[in-house]
Amino acid sequence: MQTKYILSEKEMPTRWYNVQADLPSPLPPVLHPITKQPVGPQDLAPLFPMAIIMQEVSTERYIDIPEEVQEIYKLWRPSPLYRAHRLERVLDTPAKIYYKYEGVSPAGSHKPNTAIAQAYYNKQEGVKRISTETGAGQWGSALALACNYFGLELKVYMVKVSYFQKPYRRSLIETWGAKVVPSPSMDTQAGRSILDQTVIGEESMKQMEMAGDYPDVVIGCVGGGSNFGGLVMPFVREMLRNGKKTRLVAVEPEACPTMTRGVDAYDFGDSVGMAPIVKMFTLGHTFTPPGIHAGGLRYHGMSPLISELQRLGLAESRAYHQNPVFDAAVQFARAEGIVPAPESAHAIRAAVDEALVCKQSGESKVILFGLSGHGHFDMGSYDRYFAGELEDYAYPEEKVKEALAHLPEVTPA
Ligand SMILES: Cc1ncc(COP(=O)(O)O)c(C=O)c1O
Question: For position 191, what pLDDT does the model report?
Answer without folding.
Answer: 45
